């Protein structure tokens, strides 16, 4: 019997769902009990993940649903757009799926975000379940209900807040994850330390080698603690009216890097890692944290094998890209900055200071 942990996320209006975390969950009937009843389920996955895991998921779902379809999308951040979203909707309509049909997102954050968005808009909303198979998706994207596709002018610009029925994170799926993707997932794990939990940052520091070596017990703790922090934040501010923005630490620069280079050139986690170094430095330059807080974060990100040096897009291009960030207000770019190790907040930053940081890090 696989061992599993459950993190609960509690939302306004007495809405709640479970995040099940454990090794072997794809083969455990327990994790799949009590899902919404329907005539049909549709698994949405991609050409890399489907051959690895869709067969087992389909077998499991066939015990519950009379019909289980599979939609296989092309792999990659560059496919997180209208075309893939249409492919999902075309399948649902072509197969005359009714409004009780349950969608299952089997894959990383790209599949999760697009499947969630399709679930939000198909017949004005059908239930969906997140089955995250990357570290990044298990610690972050499968939880909290941000769903979206990209636009060439900006990351995740078209989407909806729409919560899943459940998250089922089978740690065994991480066995097949390429090292580069594991490291990218670690970026979002590291993020939770500086923004919300200094002790977790110490723990990550102490356990980084074990995380990189894929020690299952250590990975299980990283996923559980990350989900606990995210669930606490989202539970207090589901639609990012305030507090939730802290989860965007490193993302203002990060999203500019992703869009500026063309989606897929850098992985999301890589861009966020580099963005966190820049945002930490901004925090220091504005007098919010001492220099050693920046150096410590930088050293951890370097040890995790993540990039420190931003691409040379030039200051003007960075500013242009960041002005469409969802946190910007009345043309002012706002950053999540560290206020202490373990605490963050939103701050408007003058263009001149942003330019200074970009220049100092070789991005100009
Ligand atoms: N909604 C949110 O709150 C949220 C949070 C963080 C990130 N995101 C989004 O998530 C996306 C990044 O997610 P990601 O890092 O998971 O990238 P991804 O979905 O592109 O997956 C990374 C790669 O790993 C492959 N893969 C997935 N599972 C695998 C497995 N078990 N074995 C082998 N290969 C596997 C995928 O096919 C892909 O090539 C970005 O689009 C980002 O914007 C969303
Ligand atoms: O859940 C959130 O809130 C986050 O900000 C988590 C981020 O890691 C994630 O990349 C998210 O998709 C970014 O949101 P966006 O609103 O900036 O597109
Ligand atoms: Zn992110």
Automatic annotation (TrEMBL):
Highest taxon above the source species: Bacteria
Cofactor note text: Binds 1 divalent metal cation per subunit. Can use either Co(2+) or Zn(2+).
The keyword Ion transport is assigned to this record: no
Cofactors (names): NAD(+); Co(2+); Zn(2+)
Binding site for Zn(2+): 188, 251, 268
Compartments, record wording: Cytoplasm
Keyword field: Amino-acid biosynthesis, Aromatic amino acid biosynthesis, Cobalt, Cytoplasm, Lyase, Metal-binding, NAD, Nucleotide-binding, Zinc
Record-annotated 3-dehydroquinate synthase C-terminal domain positions: 185-328
Catalytic activity: 7-phospho-2-dehydro-3-deoxy-D-arabino-heptonate = 3-dehydroquinate + phosphate
Keyword Endoplasmic reticulum: no
Pathway field: Metabolic intermediate biosynthesis; chorismate biosynthesis; chorismate from D-erythrose 4-phosphate and phosphoenolpyruvate: step 2/7
Pfam families named among the record's database cross-references: DHQ_synthase, DHQS_C
3-dehydroquinate synthase N-terminal domain location: 71-183
Residues binding NAD(+), per UniProt: 75-80, 109-113, 133-134, 146, 155, 173-176
Alphabetized CDD domains for the sequence: DHQS
GO molecular-function term, one example from the UniProt record: 3-dehydroquinate synthase activity
E.C. number: 4.2.3.4
Entry function: Catalyzes the conversion of 3-deoxy-D-arabino-heptulosonate 7-phosphate (DAHP) to dehydroquinate (DHQ).
Protein family (similarity comment): Belongs to the sugar phosphate cyclases superfamily. Dehydroquinate synthase family.
Protein name (database record): 3-dehydroquinate synthase
Source species of the chain: Pelomonas nitida
Lineage: Bacteria, Pseudomonadati, Pseudomonadota, Betaproteobacteria, Burkholderiales
């Amino acid at each position: 019997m696989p061992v599993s942990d459950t993190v609960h996320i509690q939302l306004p209006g007495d809405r709640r769902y479970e995040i099940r975390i454990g090794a072997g969950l794809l083969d455990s009937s327990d994790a799949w009990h009590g899902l919404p009843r329907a005539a049909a389920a549709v698994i949405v996955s991609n050409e890399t993940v489907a051959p690895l895991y869709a067969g087992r998921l389909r077998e499991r779902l066939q015990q519950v649903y009379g019909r289980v379809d599979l939609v296989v999308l092309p792999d990659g951040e560059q496919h997180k757009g209208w075309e893939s979203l249409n492919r999902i909707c075309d399948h649902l309509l072509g197969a005359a799926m009714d409004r009780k049909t349950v969608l299952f997102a089997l894959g990383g954050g790209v599949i999760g975000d697009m499947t969630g968005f399709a679930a939000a808009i198909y017949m004005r909303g059908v239930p969906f379940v997140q089955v995250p198979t990357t570290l990044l998706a298990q610690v972050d994207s499968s939880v909290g209900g941000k769903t979206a596709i990209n636009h060439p002018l900006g990351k995740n610009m078209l989407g909806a807040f729409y919560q899943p029925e459940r998250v089922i994170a089978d740690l065994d799926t991480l066995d097949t994850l390429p090292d580069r993707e594991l490291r990218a997932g670690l970026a979002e794990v590291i993020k939770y330390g500086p923004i919300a939990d200094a002790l977790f940052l110490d723990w990550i520091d102490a356990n980084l080698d074990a995380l990189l070596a894929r020690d299952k017990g250590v990975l299980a703790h990283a996923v559980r603690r990350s989900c606990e922090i995210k669930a606490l934040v989202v539970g207090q501010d589901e639609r990012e009216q305030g507090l939730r923005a802290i989860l965007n630490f490193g993302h203002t620069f990060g999203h500019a890097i992703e869009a500026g280079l063309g989606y897929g050139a850098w992985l999301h986690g890589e861009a966020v890692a580099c963005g966190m170094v820049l945002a930490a430095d901004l925090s220091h330059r504005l007098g919010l944290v001492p220099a050693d807080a920046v150096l410590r974060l930088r050293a951890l990100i370097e040890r995790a094998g993540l990039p420190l040096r931003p691409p040379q897009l030039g200051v003007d291009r960075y500013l242009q890209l960041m002005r469409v960030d969802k946190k910007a207000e009345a043309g002012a770019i706002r950053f999540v900055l560290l206020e202490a190790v373990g605490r963050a907040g939103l701050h408007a930053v003058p263009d001149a200071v942003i330019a200074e940081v970009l220049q100092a890090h070789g991005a100009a």
